[in-house]
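Handout, page 2. Input:
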Amino acid sequence: MRSVPAAVAPWVRTRLRSAPGAALALALLVALTACLAGALPRAVDRYEDAGLRHALDQAHPERTTVRATAAMPDYGSSGENPDVSFGPRVLERKFRALLPVVDASVPVDPGQSAYGVTTEEGSTVTEPWLPRPTGLPAKVTLVAQSGLAGHARVREGRLPRAPGRVDVDTPETEAAVSAATARTLHIKVGSVIRVPHFTGTLTVRISGILLPRDPAGAYWSTMPLLRTPALERLPEPGPPQTYWHGALLLPPEATLTLLGGEKAPYRYWNFAPRPGSRHAHDLGRLRTAVATLESGPGLRRARALADPDLDVSTGLDDVVIAFSRLRSGISPLVGVAAAGTATVAAVVLLMTGGLAADRRRAELALLRARGASLPGLTGRLLAETAVVAVPAGAVGLAAALVLVPGPRAGLAVAAAGAVTLAACAALPLHAVLAHRSVRLAGPREDMASARPSRRRTVAELTLLALAAGAVATLRAQGTSAGRLVSLAPVLTGVIAALLLLRLYPLLLRRLARPAGRLRGAVAPLSLARAGRTRASAVLPLLALLTALTTAAFGGSVLAGVAEARDHAALLTVGADGRLDSATALPAGLAGRIGAVPGVRAVTAAAIAYDAKPADGVDTVPLVGVDPRAYAELTARTGLGTITAEELRGRAAHPLPALASPAVARNYGTRSPFPVRLADGSAVTVRITAVHDGTPAAPTGDFLLVDRAGLPSSAARPTTLLLTGAHPDAAALRRAAPAPATVRLLAEERARYADSPLQTGAGHVYTAAVAAGAGFAVLALLLALLRAAPERAALLARLRTMGLTRAQGRRLLVLESLPQAVLAAAGGTLTGWATVHLLSPGIDLTTIALTSSQTPAGRAFLRPDPWSLTLPALAVVALAVGVATTQAWWTSRRGSVRELRAGDPR
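Output:
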């Protein structure tokens, strides 16, 4: 007789059908978290790649092109035919041989690469029609470069030709010049330039004027002289002696004519890097490849193919090193937000599993009591969760790959996979911990009565040691400490959460005694309810403290960056706007400038930059201002604030002066001294006060006096300082006279954040902090949702005992306040302590300013009050709002359902 197998409903299908809402919520959470986790490394790659491209663009092809050069061989001793080395076909053959060698290390753009022959120095030409700025004759460099026809358009004339056979003895050749060279050196089609030659002179006839098709491309910019002539200066003391230096572009077939010049020729092969071929994550490989080309196996291969004396050089490695230094200062700061957000997201995923395990506590306990094994139960729960989490994680990863394009997908896949794995393991992990032994009723786990185990104490001490080591290392090594910069704030938040959880029961006991003597039952009951919070509340508190610490640290970083940029811009401009002129400004200009939209006030200043104190040779800027207007300006800008009485000196003799510290040290503050002006007049001053800076001269040395006490020739304004929220830049420049320059504070501030590496890091940091805050709110909501059924039943029971609706609302609000206030106060204190502990090792200069050589100097981390208080207040407000909403909803639904007998809680 055959046995008929019992029909068993599949576990996973049954569980999903019984709780579709919970499965959908888990899928949404996993998909969103996986999307954020997968998008983060790709977003970092994107802004780092954009920053690298920006750095290479700023460096120009002159530094980034790989140049292979070889000098002229000694034909007299070798007996070699010059055509073998300098012929155009030979140069082309060697270019094609070198191309794969260079391309294997640095991807090459053949369209912008070129080869040819030129001379090491320019040759002096004495044509009388060439311009001579200081009387020195001009110089020209002969260049025979390949691909001229494909990279230029003919504006006048035609391209140069080399009729017949061209060799060393050729007396005349044709050449072309760029339009900029023709305009500057007064060259026309048909002009003749005689270049010194070993036979006497080489006659170069200009056949055409060319317009570069891509002036910024490597073909024209690797040797900028091809495109634009240079005004060079002799390296001699005395008055500057300058001369023009331009390039004459010979046809590629005329390379042999350069062998007879007075300057030694050399061959070159320029290999332009391919745009977009370099990525920030490959910088190490790129530096190694460049080193191989310059002095390694790549150089040996190139010499074997082209010339034994070949030399390979490029400035690409210097650009990469500078970019790596900037990235190494920014990346750890971005890692702080990433680590904080990852910690809060992990806590939320664990809390989600804990909420599901609590909801099914009775079911799982019953299964264990009926003989279900722990491995079997764990496997079923894992399969049940994986059916939902794995497809959701895949959808989130796909969304991240589509929304944030990038060259690498490995890190995104790993991050999304880690999120999916954590989501799958959360419910089985909680079930294993809660049902290790078979029991139907779990022990009471009130926070006020639970005693920490020895293992928990050891774990807490271990984390404390790690946090202390991370903070100490970071303070000593700064951002060079690497990942410790990212982990230190998170570890500090974890330690604070564990410490507050130990203090929480003590605080509740202290509050419960005086509350028991109050009239009414709401306050004592709420504190008693708060004391019965589960000991597993460490997760929401950990999430809140980590998010608040990260938000405080991130807000302080962003506030410090903004403050550093504002201060640097102010030290550059001195006010909201500035109009400078080398000569006296016309009368009535201040009124016209004051009428420009956005300008609130205009302060005039007369600045004599070549004033000489004490009849010496050193010059110090002498600034003459109106005391009252200037005092108001310093009060508005906060830069070197003074009072009008400090400067008044219309009839005083000597004239009171405010000075920079260096001027005060050099000339003293006790005795007056004369200051001689450029027109020969003089004024006697005495230093009465010392200031580090002043709006008219925000950096450097200065002497500040009352303009009314200066001679009339020196009292005429040369500078206008403007204040106003948003001055109209276009209108200001239209109103300004031609020689004057206009600078605005907003434009100067924007200049300090022109690198995509800085702006991208700031955007990613802000997005990560916002995501962490969102996960923290979700953690708080999950914690409140976990206690919602119990609170609803409590209110229902108390309503039958006469508790009013208002008392119920107050009860739930007061019950939720202790932990919310604890998280808010602990988060504020932890954020403040974290910023103070880590500020000695955090230098914000790299992320705030484009260069460390700025007027503001270094930018340090300081606590930001808004970042410390606003998130903490938001936590308290959210907790009170949820408690009030729950009390309203429970009273609206009635108490019949909550009091139903046999309803599992």
